[in-house]
Sequence to fold (1066 residues):
Amino acid sequence: VSERPRNFWGWGWEDALPSEDARRGLAAQVGALFGRDVVPRPLPRLEDVTLDAPRLRAPAHLAEIASDAKRERVLHTFGRAYPDLVRGFTKDFGPAPDLVLLPRNEADVAACLAFGVEQRVAIVPFGGGTSVVGGIECVCPQGMRGVASLDMRRMNEVLDLDETSRAARIQAGATGPALETKLVARGFSLRHFPQSFEHSTLGGWIATRAGGHYATLMTHIDDLVESVRVVTPTGVWASRRVPASGAGPSPDRLVLGSEGILGVITEAWMRIVPRPRWRASANVYYARFADGAEACRALTQSGLHPTNCRLLDAREAMLHGVADGSSAVLLLGFESADHPLEPWMTRALEIAHGTGGVCPKGAIYKDAGDKVEADAGAAWRRAFLDAPYLQSALVTLGIVVDTFETACTWLDFPDLYVKVERAVNEAMKDACGGGLLTCRFTHVYPDGPAPYFTFLAPGREGEEVAQWRAIKRAASDAIAAAGGTITHHHAVGRTHRPWYDKERPEPFARALVAAKRAVDPSGILNPGVLVDP
Amino acid sequence: VSERPRNFWGWGWEDALPSEDARRGLAAQVGALFGRDVVPRPLPRLEDVTLDAPRLRAPAHLAEIASDAKRERVLHTFGRAYPDLVRGFTKDFGPAPDLVLLPRNEADVAACLAFGVEQRVAIVPFGGGTSVVGGIECVCPQGMRGVASLDMRRMNEVLDLDETSRAARIQAGATGPALETKLVARGFSLRHFPQSFEHSTLGGWIATRAGGHYATLMTHIDDLVESVRVVTPTGVWASRRVPASGAGPSPDRLVLGSEGILGVITEAWMRIVPRPRWRASANVYYARFADGAEACRALTQSGLHPTNCRLLDAREAMLHGVADGSSAVLLLGFESADHPLEPWMTRALEIAHGTGGVCPKGAIYKDAGDKVEADAGAAWRRAFLDAPYLQSALVTLGIVVDTFETACTWLDFPDLYVKVERAVNEAMKDACGGGLLTCRFTHVYPDGPAPYFTFLAPGREGEEVAQWRAIKRAASDAIAAAGGTITHHHAVGRTHRPWYDKERPEPFARALVAAKRAVDPSGILNPGVLVDP
Fold:
């Protein structure tokens, strides 16, 4: 157990939630934005939370790795989606698990699953607890005697490192900092930096097809997985460690995105890279977001493969302190451990200029030894990691605030953007009297962008979740109607099920149900996620 | 039906088989190599082939799209694996299908599958008929009344092209030349050039995870698929056209490599690219194959992403006329539609030199308008496409000749190479009294190469298939023992089943069986491939 306490209801570390002073300042800003009084509400205290008594007890052979302590049960009740934050903030931990299981090794994991099968207990695999889609909520399905959250935090080692092939064998419970620290000590890095990096785990990334650092090429954790081990209720699912294979459908690709319904990921061989020596970055400003989008399209179709190609609309750029609100900003970057990057960046800037971009400072080149100056990119990175804390702080102000994301073709994007803006603005007006919507591209592909939206609207106390639901539904319907996917990298969980069910091919849904039944015949694993219990 | 006749027993076009004169010349060469008399045997004639009467007739509603003509049945009996060539050459078409079905559209495909379900007829999806692993052999399983080969050749159109997102909607029956001609007319290309390019089809590539043109990054057809439509016996499996998604396990990735057991692929949206304007190429010579391998490792780990990075060992280079037999050769290439390639190639050659490579001619740069000179790379490309014809010609000389391939980590490669060489040389000695083995890398990854082997040994008339089987078994066992995959891009079919069954995770095998049963409950689709009938 980490000694730095996690916030039992909000994002991340307890001590990293903005202070009361900071929240008061934020309240003034947001109040000015929405033209109304906004006041920080008092923070909930764990001692005021009441939980139902556990429906079950750990059997003697699991006693060493089981806990029904209140703090553990509260921390494993659900993830950190907006409705989870509101419920947590209002001390509503209804779906608390009966038990928290903390396996130390694969034998423990198998024992936990056997317990679930024998005692009819649902098992919810738990990594960092950062799901924003209800993916780890401990709902007890009909016919089950209870629910146990299976937390992988004790299995967090880097077990092996192959410098020649550049791969490392890492346990699923390792968080971003835990695995990076060990890899960096050996001169390598996974370079997978989702926004949840500080708390989320390798197993969670694989289970949810997390999106990471790279804007192009290896955008998802999928591309970094060399092989994977998964403990299912009916045996170990272990793929061979090879760089590529054409032997039937990829077993790894069925695990990727399986969200805990097929088994518990225990470890994986992951592709790693040396830390970059050369970096090049440039901030390109566009009067029109559409021109920046056109630059992204040209860049991703150029074969230059920028590592960063993040387009912020004018509002997003202003909120993150990267621009003054009058222009969209493209944060462009290349990095390499092998070669200086002038030819890449020079051509990329030609392309960026070709669609009307302005880059007043030009490109900034850095070698490993150079002192890093604070630039717009650095400001962006800090704001990026702090954003979830900001969301929790806004929840204490009664603000309805969330993000949603998709991917669509370049052909569909202009229409999708208009439809989503219209639908979400209307829904915010109906539900909250108004609000703010921003957009950025997190990843870009030759055939389309991954647009990422943030919304912010004043809530009414006690009605925030209903208000959020109305906005979320409008956003999701608009995305689906415009041909986007319901999620590019936030996963499906419970929140996205209705749209996911329509998006996936119907015969595939039946194949997935059958596949789950084949490896989890008792249906104990994360029931209700991806497929019906 | 194409007007240029296909060779009913051998590779490709009937008129492209090396002539009798050419085969006599080849016999002299091979005879000298093995120190024995080698004589071309007479070619088989279709009129001398006898087939059993079909076990079934097409129902009236399928009469327009069904054929039981002898030539059609013979051409659809099996693929072009070495045992198929020998059987065809000796006029043994035992597993001829009872019927050949030629659907014109999806409704026809669905009607064919319904016929299979109702009449208990196995349906074997057929693209170009080029399987080298027994993937389309028309074996009639117990309990079935007969077998129909379902040939997609009439569904061969490019239906739509999205220039903005760079994707095209292409029917599954389109061969390489058919689809490239149409794309090139619009300024684009799929740039997927497997060795079977002239005859194989988009649907076949997707069903078998074919390997294509690119040595790095987008090595398999998998990476070019944006979405796919598959007609299953229980409904249409159609994925949404998006550049990427994190919504559950990828439905497309379960179709990729499904080898016809889940449904019939009818069309796909494929990522396309403009034809390259700039090309850079260089041939780098290495005294030791291992040094060339080291160069490949460094190149693929450099982030330069060469489009060609093909390492030939000394024997392979000599056989293909690229070198004199004293050195391994690395065929290195870059191409781009966006930018000149000097910085890329310059750095790549630094790396190639760094491991002991010599590049006497230096890099050759070409702009689109330049006249293409014949170089070692061009000699290679011609030999590459002619190789399957050469194999058929060698079959007429009684030579046991085949290729096999794998992928493994860089760490495992030296050991795998030694083990495979030893096992195959021993097996050739035991079975044939000796033989020749060559190796090249077809594709390379940051974590390992895809080694591709060719073997050649004198056969004994009537025993060639048994001799081949002994060598193939030795090769496959050695690959498995050294940690390689049983196939990087040749697929599983029937030939690789024993090794595939051990390679895939056991719970995945059960999941795949269950998935198949969910979409093909009657088990009519390609029974015996990937899973037991």
Observations:
- Chain B touches chain A through 100 residues (CB under 8 Å).
